[in-house]
Hints:
- Two copies of one chain form a homodimer.
- The first copy, chain A, is of the alpha+beta class and 310 residues long.
- The first copy, chain A, has two domains: 7-149, CATH 3.30.1330.10; 164-300, Phosphoribosyl-aminoimidazole Synthetase, Chain A, domain 2, CATH 3.90.650.10.
- Helices cover 29% and strands 28% of the residues of chain A.
- The first copy, chain A, is globular, with a radius of gyration of 20 Å.
- At the A-B interface, helix 1, strand 2, strand 3, helix 3 and strand 4 of A face helix 1, strand 2, strand 3, helix 3 and strand 4 of B.
Amino acid sequence: MQTVMNEDAWIDRIVARLPAYARARSHAGGLVLGIGDDAAIYRPAPGEDLVFTTDMMHEERHFLRGYPPDSVGWKALCRSLSDIAAMGAQPRFALLSLAVAPWVKTAWIDAFYDGFLALAAKYRVPLAGGDLGRAAQTSMDVMVCGSLPAGAALRRDTARAGDRLYVSGALGGGILGLRSPRNRAARERHLRPEPRVALGLALRRRGIASAAMDLSDGLSTDLSRLARASGLAAQIWRPLPGFPGASEADALHGGDDYELLFAAPPSVRVPSRIAGAPVHPVGELVEGAPGHLFFEGEPLRPAGWDHFAK
Amino acid sequence: MQTVMNEDAWIDRIVARLPAYARARSHAGGLVLGIGDDAAIYRPAPGEDLVFTTDMMHEERHFLRGYPPDSVGWKALCRSLSDIAAMGAQPRFALLSLAVAPWVKTAWIDAFYDGFLALAAKYRVPLAGGDLGRAAQTSMDVMVCGSLPAGAALRRDTARAGDRLYVSGALGGGILGLRSPRNRAARERHLRPEPRVALGLALRRRGIASAAMDLSDGLSTDLSRLARASGLAAQIWRPLPGFPGASEADALHGGDDYELLFAAPPSVRVPSRIAGAPVHPVGELVEGAPGHLFFEGEPLRPAGWDHFAK
């Protein structure tokens, strides 16, 4: 870090890097006030729900110093966008809090924002504000607000017994890319996952899903949460749609995939591809102890990533 | 930390600690969905603006391990509430991302939430969600959403030349309390500052302020930002309303006071007390190089807290 840069200069620098749509200050609606004031203002339309999510990442825990810094920015936003996708919402804007450690150089921060803003531009999510500082360890927290028609959010607690379970894409690539850096496809999945925004919107608009969430901590852990929220148990069936090279255990328990998990009533025809995403059946929800899992009929312990474990 | 606690158990523990109004799940409006899903949902009323702010704190930089943990939780929320107050908005809900270091014990987290939720209850701000994890360093990020009538926010960029400048309360107590832990009043100001929510609402509702912001980084640094945003220079006058025991330099440059700074046209009569807060004139906005300051006629360099300095 060059010492000539202070906080305000950095904010100017970030504003200068924003695409035009994110800098627009419209009073007709949408984002009214962005970076540079105490808070960002979003003017909602009547009958609209706004959804909010926030996700932190920390050096050594969620990424390493040697990672391409653009991938860190991309992934920081992806994690929150994935939550918005899981609600079936249209992402509207993001807030980013970033604290950088002494080892971080100007070029790292530039590349971090490049990655963040590349994903933001893809989904037209303005960066509306945030916080910037220094700390012993590099960390970031991303808040994304999304909107959808009032009452239409895809929740976790609304699945029913007998609903079939589906996941998008392939599972286990995130953990495989962490473990095997030379597997380029898996490495890319680990570094630059893709949030399933279009799929989430389609599941909501087409009335397919009875419940949904994103797979950030691994299928076993996340499905247990969805089942528990809905007061149900769940069965998982073989074969799981595994990422090429991933083991069945990777697909069952590996985190960091950012695919969507959803439930649909058995009466709903679920296509094998929705909004460009492959969709695979993986099980069903059943009456039973809330959150309990079975894999091919045998009890299964959730063994995904626990952010709060040592 | 006891190793038996995992993330989900912690979320349950937090939900159990929430006051009833924060757990209510109403479909009639307000907070529709809180902790426990991918995102929180807030249903706005037509004609309403929602404002969002986020502020991070880091161990060793914003607080020390030896600080009372309830004060850390209190202050983490105060910093964002103060931003909401500065916009003239009514706080509506908060999201909290918390990462704890290995030295943090269960009792510390409990006390942290006690402090956070005590301030949240005072202003009836539901904790609507967030993120929880572990990191090498304890850090937290608080997002608060506030609402106000469309277009009514108190901004930084709307002051005019000739507008008088005012601050609430007394300045320099935050830095005095950091430097002099045995000064109990200053220490309390440093550890448990009070966001000026009622004052911000009154300034907006009574049409007093032409611009406003909160004083988190010191009068000189923050006033320079307000003046720059409005394209003006600013004069500061003696005497400044100093916190008992604080020097004039503390009042000019000390951060962490969370008082409000606002501008009002000379035609507006500004009472010496508004919504319970003492209000003092401290200067005026003048034509000149944007952001330049003068103290009793002499040029003054902003010398407050820069979060991005080494």
